[in-house]
UniProtKB/TrEMBL annotation:
Source lineage: Bacteria, Bacillati, Actinomycetota, Actinomycetes, Kitasatosporales
Protein name stated in the entry: Glycosyltransferase
Origin: domain of life: Bacteria
Stored InterPro entries: Nucleotide-diphossugar_trans
Length: 179
């Protein structure tokens, strides 16, 4: 559950749970983004649901490389994801230590992303997916977030022209395999 409380990386089709309709947990209808992540955290914290990672791939979610919900959300700052993550982090505070480091990293990510959007600079394709994959590796190795990752994913433009900045290589399509 610990990585899950830091980043929204599980697509809804990968979770199998008993029907929560008879319990106290409901979707927060005020959240228009990340409501599934919040709902799963509610199931865990309020209803005692436990989740386990399986050692085999049980579902695959494929994102096609064309504008969709994420692209639309990245048109104005702060993004709906920035606002939703702030609500979720406030609602479900991290205890301490590394958890706080990773949450702070994602807050800085949101700030850098929102700054790029406000400046009408391009947002690298699948930038959030790149971040989650890279950070998951350091998190599971019990290390702090890579301090250079944010600059590689969302470079600032204070001293360099955007055309001169390295951008992550876009994927032809992103596939999330959930265990």
């Amino acid at each position: 559950m610990s990585w899950w409380a830091r980043a929204n990386f599980i697509h809804t089709g990968s979770v199998v749970t008993r029907n929560p309709a008879g319990g106290p947990v409901r979707f927060d209808e005020n959240l228009h983004h990340c409501e599934d992540w919040d709902f799963l955290l509610r199931l865990h914290h309020l209803a005692g649901h436990r989740f386990a990672r399986l050692n085999s791939i049980t579902s695959v979610y494929h994102q096609v490389p064309r504008p969709g919900a994420v692209h639309s959300a990245y048109q104005a700052a702060p993004t709906p994801f920035t606002m939703a993550r702030a609500v979720i982090y406030d609602r479900w505070p991290a205890a301490h230590g590394r958890a706080l480091e990773y949450r702070e990293w994602f807050r800085r990510f949101d700030h850098h992303l929102d700054t790029r959007i406000e400046a009408r600079l391009p947002v690298p394709p699948y930038v959030y997916e790149h971040a989650v994959r890279a950070l998951h590796a350091t998190f599971t190795d019990r290390r702090s977030p890579d301090p250079s990752l944010l600059g590689r994913l969302l470079p600032t433009t204070s001293s360099t022209h955007i055309a001169d900045l390295p951008m992550p290589t876009p994927w032809e399509g992103v596939v999330h395999a959930t265990r």
